[in-house]
Specification:
The chain has a single domain, classed as 3-Layer(aba) Sandwich (Rossmann fold). The chain has 274 residues and is α/β, with parallel strands linked by helices. Helices cover 40% and strands 16% of the residues. The strands form two sheets. It has an eight-stranded mixed beta sheet with strand order 1-10-9-8-7-2-3-4, sandwiched between helices. It is globular, with a radius of gyration of 19 Å. Helix 8 links the parallel strand 7 and strand 8.
């Protein structure tokens, strides 16, 4: 186990894949939808069971949405909540990674109509964002695709078939994104579906700054344990890239990252090197 500045062999990853909920933002989007119908505790219990690895994600995914029946407007509003609850330094970390030439992705089991605008706000290219699309129907029961235009009161009908509604689905999506990517890859997340996808990247970093899920904390290659994502830069960037960014708008972010790492907010748990 290594706490403090990572050795050089642990530094430098060309592709960085982020989970969204409880990683880039401090909420779980579908749980937030449950607040509208006053069913938060019920839905959160299902989410926690899946993210903790106690039940398969596919067993509860559609059940949650079918129970809630959110409208198009309800789901769109989650994008605003994502921005309001963005994890500390998330936007700057994405910007710094891209300034260093890294490829940044979001792969999420959240709803695309909420994750996509949040990802754009973070600065992630739209074609680097993967999440679960849904179909809507109007209050009359006619599928929204058969209507002229979109209405705020169009209601959830079903999810579009996606591997991201399944416990092992993030692995397939990550593999597809990384085809011909070149360089080493890193995945950052908090849940069981992220842990499953660890086999398809060179390094899995568990983020426990929002929710500390025991299985993820125990099995991740590395952990960021504070409430900021800034310590990730100590892994994703080479020492030379970090030095280059010190001469840019990201100077203060680099300083914060180093201070957090020295304070013990980054731990390497894996033996050897990635």
């Amino acid at each position: 186990m290594i706490t403090g500045a990572p050795p050089n062999e642990w530094r430098g990853f060309q592709s960085v894949i982020f989970d969204c909920d409880s990683t880039l933002t401090a909420i779980e989007g579908i749980d937030e939808l449950a607040r509208i119908g006053d069913r938060y505790d019920e839905i959160k219990a299902l989410t926690d069971a899946a993210m903790g690895g106690y039940v398969p994600l596919e067993q509860i995914y559609d059940r949650r949405l079918g129970t809630l029946g959110p409208t198009r407007a309800d789901i769109a509003a989650i994008a605003d909540r994502y921005r309001e609850t963005a994890v500390t330094d998330a936007r700057e970390v994405v910007g710094a990674l891209q300034a260093a030439g890294k490829r940044v992705f979001i792969v999420s089991g959240g709803l695309l109509d909420a994750v996509r605008p949040f990802g754009r706000w973070l600065g992630v290219p739209e074609d680097h964002i993967r999440a679960v699309a849904v179909r809507y129907q109007t209050v009359s029961g006619v599928p929204a695709a058969d209507q002229a235009g979109e209405r705020a009161d169009d209601r959830y009908l079903e999810t579009v078939a996606s591997p991201l509604t399944q416990a092992h689905g993030k692995s397939a999506v990550a593999r597809n994104l990384l085809i011909n990517a070149g360089g080493r890859s890193m995945l950052v997340g908090d849940g069981a579906s992220d842990l499953v996808a660890a086999a398809d990247v060179d390094l899995f970093v568990g983020f426990t700054g929002v929710v500390n899920r025991p299985r993820v904390a125990a099995e991740a290659d590395a952990l960021v344990t504070g409430t900021s994502l800034a310590p990730l830069l100590g892994l994703a960037l080479t020492a030379a890239e970090e030095t280059t960014l010190e001469a840019t708008q990201y100077r203060d972010l680099i300083a914060r990252s180093r201070a957090m790492i020295q304070a013990g907010e980054l731990t390497i748990q894996k033996d050897g090197s990635p």
